GntR family transcriptional regulator
Amino acid sequence: MAYTPQYVKIKEYIIENIKHGNFKPGEKIPSEKNLGDIFNVSRITATTAIRDLVKEGYVYRIQGKGTFVSEKKIENVRNHNAYGFENNSSLNEDVHETKSVRVIKVGSEFSEKMDLTETEELYEIIRYKLDDGKVNAVEYVYLPLKYYPSLKLREVEIGHIHDLVKDSCFLKQKKAKVYIEPVMLDEEQSEILGLDKEKPVLQLEKTTFSVEDKIIEYSRNIINSDIYKFYMDLDLEA
C-alpha cells in the first residue's frame, strides 16, 4: 500500500469537511496547532497542508485571525471527463431548471462553429443552475437535428447532456474540446445572473466530436466567477 504523507491526510480531511458542509464558506477552520494535535504531527506539517490549500483556493488566511474557507467552489479541470452541468462537477449540485427547449435555424452564428449550413436546424436547450434560488450559471446547448432523428426533446427529462448525446445521437461521441475564458455579459445574462454588465464572468465553451469527426454538440456555460474557480494540477515528475 502506498504511503500517504501526513500533510496530505490533513489536506484531504479539510477538503472532505468543506465538500460535506462541515466547514462552510467564510467559516474559520481549525488552527494549525489544533490540526497538529488532531493528527499527532508537528505544526510545520499542518502549515504545509494549509499552504497547499491556500494555493489551490480552498481556503484563505487573514493575518492574526486564522484560516477561513473560500467563498468560491473549486474545480480541478483535469478531473473532469465531461463539462457543464455534469455528474463530476459542483455545477451539478443544487437545482437545475430548464428554461426553454426549441428548434432553431443554424444561421450564420453556428454555421462556422458547427460546420453546418445556415438552413439546417438545431435543438437549443437553455438551463439555469440555481443555488438557494439564485442563478449562478446559465447553460446553452445546441444539437444538430440531423444527428438526433428519433429525439423528441419535449418528451425527455433532461439530465446530463453527456448522457443525452450518448443515448440519443446515432453517432458515437469520441472527444470534446473545452475552452475557458473570461467574457462580458450581455443584457439578458446580466439580468438573469443579477450581475453588472461590466463584471467579467467565466465561459466554458465545449465542442463534442463523433468518431467520424462530426460536431454533434456545442455548448456554452456562463458562470458567475464570484462563485466558481477553476484550476489544474500538473504532475511535473511524469
